[in-house]
Amino acid sequence: MAGQVKRVDFHTHIIPVDLPDFSKKYEGERWPIMHRTCACGANIMVGGKVFREITDQCWDPQKRIADMDREGVDIQVISPIPVTFSYWAPAEAAAVMSRLQNDFIADTVQANPQRFIGLGTVPLQDVETAIREMDRCMNELGLKGIEIGTNVNGSNLDDPSLIPFFEMCEQWEVPLFIHPWETMAKERTPRHNFMYTVGMPSETALAAASLIASGSMEKFPRLKICFAHGGGSFPYILPRLDQGWHVWPHLRLTTHPPSHYAKNFYFDSLVYDPLNIKYMVDRFGHDKVIMGSDYPFLLREIPPGQVIDETISLTEEQRRSMLGENALRFLNVLP
Question: Which residues form the Amidohydrolase-related domain (predicted)?
Answer without folding.
Answer: 8-332
